[in-house]
Amino acid sequence: MKLSIPKQAASIIETLTAHGYEAYVVGGCVRDSILGKTPSDWDITTSARPEQVKALFARTIDTGIKHGTVTVMMDKVGYEVTTYRIDGDYEDHRRPNDVTFTTSLKEDLMRRDFTINAMAYNDADGLIDLFGGMDDLERGIVRCVGAAKDRFDEDALRMLRAVRFAGQLHFRIEEDTREAIRLCHENLRDVSAERIQMELLKLLISDHPETFREAYSTGLTSVFFPEFDRMMETEQKNPHHCYTVGEHTLHAVQLIEPNPVLRLTMLLHDVGKPATKTTDEYGIDHFYNHYRVGADMSKDILKRLKFDNKTIQLVCQLISHHDIRFRDPKKNGRRHVRKVMHSIGANLFPYLLKVMEADVRAQSDYYQAQKLSILQETWVAYEEILAAKDCLTLKDLKINGNQLKALGIREGKAIGAILNTLLSMVLEHPELNEYPYLKELALKIYRQLRQ
C-alpha cells in the first residue's frame, strides 16, 4: 500500500532517515489517508530525540518538549515530530506522570488509543500495522489497542473519543471496548470540561450525530450531561410525538445541517421538557413553557461545558423561540412573522426556521404536513419582508431620538417609550413607516404621557 504524503512531511522523514533515525507519519493522518479522506494535519513519529530533531532543522518550536514533541516549520506549515515514547503511570485519568523515550516503534504504537490510530507509514517500509488496524477499518470497528480498561484508565477522554470516532466514521464500537467504557465511565469526571466540549462538538457535527446515543447507553452522559439521561427516560404520550424526549432529540439533531450552533440547539431544544411535564385527565402529556425553562437550563449546561458566550447566546435565543406557532402567512399576513423577526433578529430568523423544521420532522405524522407547509409559507414571507425592507428594528424607523428632541421631546424615558410604541405599530402596519405620520403620532403620544 502506498499513501500520498505531503512533500514537506516526506522531506522531514527523509532528513531523519538520512541521519540514521527511523521516522513515519502516524495516527489519524494514516487512518484518514487509507479511508480516502484528506487529513487535517500530519504527525510524525521518530526514534530521534527532541534535541536531535532540533539539530537537523532550521526552524523548530518546542511545543511539547517534555513529552518529546517538536514542531518543525516548513514554509510556514508546522509538523509535529514526536520521539517514540513509553508513557509512565497515569494517576488522574488525564495524562502520564512522566514519559520514557524509546527506540522501539512497537512500544510507541502500543500506548495509542485505538487500533485504527496505531498505524504508521513511510514510503520505504510501507504500512506498519501491528495491532490489526487495517482489519478494523475494513470491518468498521473502533477497538482499543490492548486491554480497553487500561487505555481508559490512562486517559478517560478516550471513552468519549471512541463514541466520536464511531460517529465520524460510521463505525461500531467493539464489544469489549464498549463494555470497558460502561465500567470506567465515572473516570470521565477527572477530564476537563474543555476537552469534553471539543469531543462533543466533533461528534455533533459529524455525519452521524445520533451516535451520541452510545454516550448515553454506556453511562458517559450521566457524568457530563445528566439532563440528557432524563430526556431519554421521559415519555411523550401526545399525538404530536412518537418518541421519548431523548429519542426525538437525537432524530432532530440528525435532521439539521452540521452547523455547531444548530446542532447544539437541537441537542438542547427540549431539555426543559422533563421538568415541565404534566399529564391531563385524558392521559395526554403536556410540556407547558418548556422552551423558556429549557433556555435557562441550556445556559447553565453550556457554561458548565465552557462554551463561549456568543454560542451560548445564540443557542439560548433559538431555544426560547423554537416553540412559536406561526399562523399561516397566506391567511394572516406577515405581521406575526415580522414580530418574531424583530424579537430574534432578522439574521437569526433563518436558523429558527431550520430548527423548527427539524423539530417537526422528528415528530409523529400527526398534522406534520400542515406544519411543514406553514413553515414553507413562513420562509416565503420572510423573504418578502426582506425584499420589501419592512421596518423590523428601531434603526429602521423613519424617525429617531434626535428628531423627537427637535420636536421638543427632551425626556429620555419619554423618547424611549414613544419610539417603542411607534415600532410596535409599524411592525403591525409597515406602510405607516413614514416621517410625517410618525411625527404627528409621536406628538400625540407625548401629550398623552404628560397628562
Topology:
Layout: H1 7-18, E1 23-26, H2 28-34, E2 43-46, H3 50-56, E3 60-64, E4 69-74, E5 77-83, E6 85-87, E7 99-101, H4 105-110, E8 119-122, E9 126-129, H5 133-139, E10 141-142, H6 148-154, H7 157-169, E11 172-173, H8 175-184, H9 193-204, H10 212-217, H11 221-224, H12 226-232, H13 245-254, H14 260-268, H15 273-276, E12 278-279, E13 285-286, H16 290-304, H17 309-321, H18 329-332, H19 335-344, H20 349-361, H21 368-388, H22 401-406, H23 412-428, H24 435-450
Parallel strand pairs: 2-5, 10-11
Antiparallel strand pairs: 1-2, 1-8, 3-4, 4-5, 6-7, 8-9, 12-13
Helix pairs in contact: 6-8, 7-9, 12-13, 13-14, 13-20, 14-17, 16-17, 20-21, 23-24
GO molecular function: CCA tRNA nucleotidyltransferase activity; metal ion binding; nucleotide binding; tRNA binding
EC number: 2.7.7.72
Cofactor: Mg(2+)
What would you call the structural class? alpha+beta
Major β-sheet profile: 7 strands, mixed
Instruction: Give the overall shape.
Output: elongated
Question: What's the helical proportion of residues?
Answer: 40-55%
Strand content: 5-15%
The counted number of beta strands is 13
**Poorly predicted parts:** none
Mean of the pLDDT scores?
95
Count of DSSP-assigned helices? 24
Instruction: Tell me the radius of gyration.
Output: 29 Å
Physical arrangement of strands within the biggest beta sheet: 3-4-5-2-1-8-9
- How far is the N terminus from the C terminus? 88 Å
Domain Poly A polymerase head: 23-143
Family: Belongs to the tRNA nucleotidyltransferase/poly(A) polymerase family.
EC number: 2.7.7.72
GO molecular function, one term: metal ion binding
